[in-house]
Amino acid sequence: MKIEIRGVEKLSFRERQVVALKEMGKSAEEIAKRLDLSPSTVATLYNRAKTKGYEVVIIMPGDALGIFGIDAEMEGTGNED
After folding, report:
1. How confident is the model over 50-80, as pLDDT tens digits?
2. Which among 1, 66, 78, 81 is placed 20 to 30 Å from 44, CA to CA?
3. 2-74 belongs to CATH 3.40.50
């Protein structure tokens, strides 16, 4: 899985770091420890980034979701509509 942050050019370097870690599921405390910041600074950076209008896109291969090949599997099962 990969993430893409669209509108990243609007964000500061620190905002980019916080957004990327937050989107990977890290807590404010984990991010603060990793970036040597206080949790309140992490919250400020994240909230500031949200106001700048970035968009996060998750890129996943379809087979990871088990959705490719369904049509082929259903052919021949009598479930065709």
Report:
1. 999 899 888 877 777 777 765 555 555 555 5
2. 1
3. no
